[in-house]
Structures are given as structure tokens and as C-alpha cells.
Amino acid sequence: MKSLKSGLIVLGTVGLLFLGACSNATQENNSASNTESSTATNTSKTETAKSHGKSEHGDKEHGHGGQVVESGQYHLELVTHKEDKGSHLDFIIEKGEKHEIVSNAKVTAQVQLPDGTQKTLDFKYDAKDKHYTAALPGNAPGQYPVKVTADIGGEKVNGRFTVKQ
Q1: pTM of the prediction?
Q2: Which structural domain, as residue segments, surrounds residue 60?
Q3: 30, 68: one domain
Q4: 118 contact partners, CB below 8 Å, separation of at least 6
Q5: Residue 108 has pLDDT above 50, yes or no
Q6: b/e sequence 82-101, b meaning 16+ C-beta within 10 Å
Q7: CB proximity list for 16: less than 8 A, separation 6 or greater
Q8: Of 130, 139, 163, 164, which residue is 20 to 30 A from 65 by alpha carbon distance?
Q9: What CA–CA distance (Å, rounded) separates 42 from 120?
Q10: Signal sequence: where (predicted)?
């Protein structure tokens, strides 16, 4: 009788350990997929600019080949052109699903130079080409983090980009 009781206790204990191990594996799997899910979500929120040859809608007229940031209802795009004395920057702001050009914004950029110093650029609107332009002087090699701020009728819209020299 004692051996039967001992056998049942051992069998019950092994069963509980097995269930506990299965339960932990399920929690670890759920935890791992929740972590992957939240990492993917956080990545998309902190992602700043993507390079596109054309827009997500497949329209060549909306894609200018630059780095793109979607900020609320605004589509922001920074296109850079290397020149002898620096880079020429074109900044396009479009609003809504129809990508209507925004021409009444006050656009500035804070640029961090490779040596760590900050430079402020003021963009001017080019009515002919329907975008804002500025010049980034200097040819020091490296990455230039750029934070563009557009004030559109009192509404501030920001985009972060990187210019490589």
C-alpha cells in the first residue's frame, strides 16, 4: 500500500512538473512574440526617413527620389544633390491622400555637422518647382543628421533625415 501511495505521489509530481514546464514554454513563446510585436511597433514609431524612388502609391509625380517621412496628414520628402561647395536640399511638403502641395509653410532645419556643431538653415519656397530649397555648405565627409520643422499656419510638422557627404 505504501508503495502504491508513493507511486501515485511520484506520478502526480511528475505530471505537475510536466504541466508547469508546458505552461512556462507557452508563456515564454507568448512573451517572445509580444516582444517581437512590440519591437516591430517601436521600430516603426522611431523610424524617421526612408528612401523612395516613388511614393507608396506608385505615382511618379509624388515620388521625388528622396527620403520620406509621413507625419500625420503630411508627406515630407528631402532630396539632396551634391554640389562643389556642399549640398543643395529640396524639401517637399504634401498634404492629404491627394498629396496637395503645401506652399505657405515656414521651413527651417537644424543640421548637426560631422564635427558636432549645429547649423540652422532657412528654406525658401520655389514656386516654379513647387518645393522648398536650401543650401548646406561644406563638404566634410560623414553623416549630417537633419531635423526639419515646418510651420504650416501655426501647426508644427517635424521630420528627421540624414544627409551623407
Answers
A1: 0.63
A2: 50-164
A3: no
A4: 110, 111, 112
A5: yes
A6: eeeebbebbbbbbeeeebee
A7: none
A8: 139
A9: 29
A10: 1-25
